[in-house]
Amino acid sequence: MPSVVGLPFHVGRDLAVEAGVTLANPDGPPIAALAWPGLFYITAQSPVAGTVLHEFDSVGITVERFAPS
Fold first, then answer.
1. How many angstroms separate the Cα of 69 from the Cα of each of 40, 45, 62, 65, 66?
2. What does the DSSP assignment read for 26-43?
3. For residues 34 and 13, is the Cβ–Cβ distance under 8 A?
């Protein structure tokens, strides 16, 4: 699994799809419901980058809304 931490959600999602896995919210609603509308960044992932996963496994992520300063 590649690292998706620090990426915008839509970029991380596409990278996960290319790796054959799915991003998920382990503690609640579907991740797409949390990361729309707006710009969200991935702040954490589990398992960590470099972990070997099976096709269609899920990777838990945390997202945070982008807030310009």
1. 15, 25, 21, 12, 9
2. TTSS-HHHHS-SS-EEEE
3. no
Identify the pLDDT of residue 25. 87
Q: Read off the pTM.
A: 0.84
pLDDT along the chain (69 residues), means of 10: 94 94 85 79 94 92 88
Beta-carbon count within 10 A of 62 CB: 17
- Per the structure, the complete domain to which residue 22 belongs is given by 9-65
Alpha-helical regions (H) of 1-69: 9-19, 31-34
Number of domains in the chain: 1
Asked if the structure places residue 25 within a domain, the reply is yes
Cβ atoms of residues 50 and 1 within 8 Å: yes
